[in-house]
TrEMBL record:
Coiled coil: none annotated. It comes from Pseudoalteromonas phenolica. It is a multi-pass membrane protein. Residues 43-187 form the Peptidase S54 rhomboid domain. This is Rhombosortase. The keyword rRNA processing does not apply. One of its GO terms (molecular function) is serine-type endopeptidase activity. One of its GO terms (cellular component) is membrane. The keyword Membrane applies.
Length: 195
């Protein structure tokens, strides 16, 4: 039987992330917090970070909440609460800076999807580190998805649902951030094998 990670230390961080994003949607904070290139250029630099936590519409938020839940099911037990918050903050900043520096065509960006791609990549590497073969499949699968997105472009159907262009560049940037976070896991795995 599958044991779900309902322990408070595993369930509290994803619940808080969900509540934060939901509260920002209810309070209609996009004008103040979304990644908006022109406003960042005039000094509103917090948007590089905060744009990750606001969403284009309720459907966009719901899709990201499903992603939070999926990651919780797969990898909740891989992180402490503090690691969850540190990973979330790092990937939010990483993704926002990546968009700012590398994707000038993105004028407005919202959502957790870039950040979530990074968390999935890190989780797959952690799976591999602890000997779970499913981690290899997840790692290959996420990079296959990213390659397909870069080749075929953003999904028009999802874009219609969220009333915004799917920022596939953010997915790739976030995944690279997760890979960088996971370099320590790879190093630990290699060191264990050599001993």
């Amino acid at each position: 039987m599958i044991q779900l990670p309902f322990d408070r230390k595993y369930i509290l961080p994803p619940i808080l992330l969900t509540l934060l994003s939901s509260a920002l949607m209810v309070l209609n904070t996009n004008d103040l917090l979304e990644f908006h290139r022109d406003k960042i250029a005039t000094g509103e630099i917090w948007r590089i970070f905060t744009g990750q936590f606001v969403h284009a519409n309720p459907t966009h938020l719901l899709l990201n909440i499903v992603g939070i839940g999926f990651i919780w099911l797969l990898h909740a037990e891989h992180r402490t609460q503090s690691q969850y918050y540190i990973h979330t903050a790092y990937l939010a900043l990483w993704t926002g800076l990546g968009i700012w520096l590398l994707v000038p065509d993105i004028k407005i960006y919202t959502g957790l999807s870039g950040l979530l791609h990074g968390v999935i990549v890190w989780g797959a590497l952690k799976d591999i580190q602890v000997g779970m073969r499913s981690g290899i499949l997840l790692f290959i699968g996420i990079w296959g998805k990213l390659a397909w997105e870069q080749y075929s472009g953003p999904s028009a159907d999802v874009g219609e649902l969220i009333q915004s262009r799917v920022a596939i560049e953010a997915h790739l940037i976030g995944a690279i951030g997760g890979l960088i976070m996971g370099l320590g896991l790879i190093k630990e795995k290699l060191l264990v094998k050599t001993k």
